[in-house]
Amino acid sequence: MDDPYAVLGIPATATLAQAEAAFRERLREVHPDRHPDADDEVAEADAAATRALNDAIREVRYRLREVRTIERCGTCGTPAVVSGAACPVCGADPDDRPWWHDEPGQGVGALPPIDGMHRTEWLRSPTSPNVLAPVILAFVAIAAFALVFWVLTSMVARS
Fold first, then answer.
1. Fewer CB atoms inside 10 Å of the end CB: C or N, the chain?
2. DSSP E strand boundaries for 25-137
């Protein structure tokens, strides 16, 4: 790939705003509406220039660390939170996440892993009390229902 700054026609010390402005200006130059009567060769050259400009601006954004990923909010679980930005639903700042969302050994209130697993992994594991509690509750409910059924049938049988 060519130097993205050279493709955009900007110095290597340019800011992201300068790169975006140069990208839009260069993109306007090669836009198909500028050449409505162009033959196939000019159209292909414009398409290739557009691809080169898109690659160049993507590379510049990456180099300036402006590429952001989509994550879940650590507080409310909203799925479309841009990393490094506040959550649009609950307004949680990514630096103010609750301690239980920290990775093991990180953060002020981070707790050590349990059985070598992060706490969220442990809570989802088959041996977790949170997983066993509904099973135990269901067993107790079935046993109670069976006991009530047995008592009622024995009372009906006696009468």
1. C
2. 70-71, 81-82
Instruction: Chunk the chain into consecutive blocks of 10 residues (it has 159) and report each block's average pLDDT, rounded to whole numbers.
Output: 80 83 86 79 83 84 62 61 62 58 46 54 58 80 95 87
pTM: predicted TM-score of the whole model, two decimal places: 0.40
* C-alpha radius of gyration, the chain, whole number: 30
Sequence-ordered list of residues with C-beta below 8 angstroms from that of 124, at least 6 positions apart, any chain? 131
Calpha distance 133→119 (Å, rounded): 17
- Do the Cβ atoms of 110 and 103 come closer than 8 Å? yes
* Angle between helices 40-63 and 16-29 in degrees, nearest 10: 180
For position 100, what pLDDT does the model report? 47
Neighbours of 8 (CB within 10 A): 24
The domain covering 4-63 belongs, at the CATH homologous superfamily level, to DnaJ domain (1.10.287.110)
Domain boundaries, given as residue ranges, for the chain: 4-63
Nearest to 86 by CA among 100, 71, 67: 71
